[in-house]
Amino acid sequence: MSEHGRTDIDPDRPRSRFAFLLRPWFLIVVTILLILVAIPLTYRSTRLSAIPPIEEIVDLQTEGRVTIEPAENAFTFYERAWKLTPSGLDVEVLYEALGAFDTGGWETVSLEARNSLDQCEPKLAEWRRGTELKLAARDLPADMDWYNQGDLSDSETVTSVALLMAARCQHDGRLDEAWQWLRAVFRFSRHLGNPGPSGDRYAGTSIHASACQRLVAWAADSRVTTEQLTTALTEVRDIYRNTVANSTCLRLEYVINVNSLSNPELLKELCSWLPVAENLPTSLHGVWLFVNAEPQVGLLLQRHLISNYLSQCDLPRWERTPAGTSAELFLPTGKEVPPLIDPRTLDDLLSRSPIGSMFGADFYLIENSDNEQALQSALELCLMAELFRRRHGSYPDSLDALVPEFVAEVPRDLFGPTSADRMLMFRREAAAVVKPADEFEEESLDTLPGLILYSRGSDGTDDEGRVDSTDDTGLRIPIPPPGASQP
Question: Is the N or the C terminus of the chain less surrounded, counting Cβ atoms within 10 Å?
């Protein structure tokens, strides 16, 4: 047989360096590694593909970019006022003084609170200059994230001082001046969050509620004239028209969330907040985010969520169609642009996304706004009830008595279950007997005599004007006993 016909292999012939690639053991190892890589990649891809595509809902380059000249910006004066806070000012003393005034008059206000009021006059003067301006922007919301939204801690302090100043003016008989301080607080409440993040809007709502309570106490003073009441009613209506739309706040909140989730440093800290990742070593946080397709999934879901809220958030409460989901989504009409996905599908996706599930609380901004609108209606009715008393010598027996002299019809109750439900009134002739839960429990305004004008509140049920609690939303006109002196 010739040499060319040989088929055996020369044992001394050099082997290829890549021959091991064909070994069974190597192929098994490679296959296992590929499977281990493919599983997380497939999981990541599945998470992203499960979310329907949606176009951008705001212009990230322009949304929240407000240009106001410093001299025309109310916050120029507010920030100066913050710096004029007297050293050692005890905010709790101011809160206690307001509570004492509401239940016992100016004589019950402590000497420390009165001295604090005198010390704060320069601060109040600068703050009040800001309230007279039309425009206000605390920062550029487009540049905000979760950590650089500024400090509003002094807003409650200056509000308390201004309300206490109004109380002192009322006690001294300077009723016009008292109204001017109350008017300034109302205007301040509309500046917060207009535009700005939702936290500013919540602060504005809280300040509005405090101003409403004090204004009702001012209006109940028999020394306040019909003309003064008419002016106050007209102006609080005009001021409230400057309330920022829910959609504006939600779009800005979306921008802030996008900025935050695009910040690598914030993402690192976010991992320590999320229950799913809290036990992971820090070195694995990036891997965890990648495998779960976060924050991309969270951002996409938030875009769907805010798009759903924007579709109905500016409508009256009774025109919205809730979907009954845990994220308080709305049912689509089919006319939305961009189209909305099924609320139950979105709710399920949100619940399965550690980051996406954080954003369902945005709905409470809408609920908070509803409560504020109900309180505003109660305030306007209280002022009408006081006008009725000035003209007829007593408070109305029902809200229907205000029609048509003061209002065309009793306002619809925002929280009423049906279109026939109107705002309510409850008269308490004597102090309610309440058994304290413990010896330290103080008497609540809910237990005092008065005329209570209210809405049913978010639960939609009439709880007989329990406006100090979360049952109903409204205001109480204090009715002093016969022969009692004015505040």
Answer: N
The token duo for 63 is: 């949304």
Residues 226, 263: contact at Cβ < 8 Å?
no
Nearest in space to 156 (alpha carbons), one of 208, 102, 230? 208
Residue 256, judged by CB atoms within 10 A of its CB (0-12, 13-18, 19+), counts as buried
| Alpha-carbon span 275 to 260, nearest angstrom | 19
Q: Is 98 helix (H, G, I), strand (E, B) or coil?
A: helix
Question: What is the C-alpha separation between 474 and 88, in angstroms, rounded?
Answer: 35
Report how far residue 223's alpha carbon sits from residue 287's, in angstroms, rounded to the nearest whole number. 70
One-letter amino acid at 469 equals S
Stretches where the chain sits below pLDDT 70 are 1-23, 25-27, 29-31, 33-43, 275-280, 431-447, 469-470, 480-487
Q: Which residues of 173-184 are buried (b: 16+ CB within 10 A; e: fewer)?
A: eebeebbebbbb
Q: Judging by beta carbons within 10 Å of its beta carbon (0-12, 13-18, 19+), is residue 189 exposed, middle or buried?
A: buried
Which residues pair with residue 427 across a beta bridge? Answer: 451
245-268 confidence digits (pLDDT tens): 999 999 999 999 999 888 888 887
Nearest of 130, 133, 134 to residue 78 by alpha carbon: 130
The pTM for the full model equals 0.87
The tokens describing 404, both together, are 């048509």
Question: Beta-strand (E) ranges in 44-95?
Answer: none
Structure confidence by residue, pLDDT tens digits, 310-341 = 999 999 999 999 999 999 999 999 888 888 99
Written as six digits, the tokens of 270 are 């976010």
Sign of CA dihedral 223, 225, 231, 232: positive
- Letter string b/e over residues 150-161, b meaning 16 or more CB atoms within 10 A of that residue's CB: eebebbbbbbbb
